[in-house]
Amino acid sequence: MSRHSTESFEEKPVQDSASVSTQDKAEAHARSVAQPEDTFNAAEGAPLESAISYQSVPAQPSIPNGGTLAWLQVLSGFFMFFNSWGLLNAFGAFQVYYTTVLIPDSDNSAVSWIGSIQAFLTCCITIFAGPLFDRGYAKWIVYFGSFMVTFGLMMASLGSSYYQLLLAQGFCIGIGAGCIFIVSVAIIPQYFSTKRAFAIGIAAAGSSLGGVIYPIVFHELQPKVGYGWTTRIMGFIALATLSVPCACIRLRVLPPPRKTIVDFSGFKELPFALFSLASFVGFIGLYIPFFYVSEFAGSSRGDLQTKLAFYMLPILSSGSIVGRILPAYIADFTGPLNVLAVCTIVAGVLGFCWIPIHSSAAGLIIWSLLYGAFSGAFVSLQPSTVVSITDDMSAIGGRLGMNTFCAALGILIGNPVAGAIVGDGNWSGMQAFCGGTLLASSLLVVLTRWSRTGSTMLKKA
């Protein structure tokens, strides 16, 4: 790749001055005008690695903390979340249609593997995309991810069998979503040293809005224009919204090069090991309502067996918008571990409160809003929480990547297990499974806090 072509697609990033000496600054400047391959030709990066931590800290002169370009990164992150986790949040609409109309020979457990693989790849692809981001290829990652998401939706519109949908929606969209997800999380802290958790929370709210808009589009258009054209229209929506990050993403700094791609050293520290286990256990149950709430509402007695049953999923996602932003704002003042522990406990209790709701539309609407609000913190506060338990900021990229991979394993098994539990209508067992995993995760979050700060209740953590 020539120097001219490299400079044409990426703004020249420079290494953070806090991590280098005066002599190293001159060398970093020389490297900043070189090709990315020349800059890091022998070093291996780490997923989500950045020279800047994800936790809010006092303002630094080198970081803009606002301005048009900084907020364009937040907007870009919003649309990347919209088309990564937003599509995943909308999978419940596809789940119902696939099991009842398109591929009725496949049961809930088999169909949920499509969404679980999509979610798993969204998380674990960061291990491979992260080093490319560190080397200055943010725009190319966004280009590739945007193409894969759009292409996956277009191919899913042509699918009529299980394996075709698994390849298009599970693998293709999952890989693309993972590419744009890594950039959406990693780019914002380069522009904000104050209110970082809040800025990430705003971007993460895009996933909730996607979980509102995409299911409604699918539900309203599918009877009118058919499954194929409905999915293609969703592909055009993805293409239009992803054009924003394709045009606006700009790297501001490059981190110091690292020798390893995957960092396992964090598991030697008790707080990180406990929180990684908490992420694994929590994500087993976290997305069960997003996959099954519409089907549950349609199979219930009373006034739920109406058109309103489908809208339980958009209602759940709309509650999650608040859950992405408000806890992140509070976490800047009280600490992410404190907020995450409270929100996860409440979400676990709500999992059990789902059991007695059999036929009341009003009851399920209220429950959906509350669960969406309290479960939303689990996604938006993950980066800030990992940073709050990490002392060596140079290792933060590897820590975030490994923690996200643990969450991916939880997602991979959680929803298929829930589908197997439901069987011929064992909803209470599935609901208890959801609540139990979240309460177990909340206990692990509390233990993480205790291992980090002790038993002091009022300390920021």
Automatic annotation (TrEMBL):
Membrane topology: Multi-pass membrane protein
Record's subcellular location: Membrane
InterPro entries: MFS (IPR011701), MFS_dom (IPR020846), MFS_trans_sf (IPR036259), Proton-linked_MCT (IPR050327)
Record protein name field: Major facilitator superfamily (MFS) profile domain-containing protein
Domain Major facilitator superfamily (MFS) profile: 70-453
Compositional bias ranges of the Basic and acidic residues kind: 1-14
Similarity comment: family membership: Belongs to the major facilitator superfamily. Monocarboxylate porter (TC 2.A.1.13) family.
Origin: domain of life: Eukaryota
GO molecular-function terms, A-Z: transmembrane transporter activity
One GO cellular component term: membrane
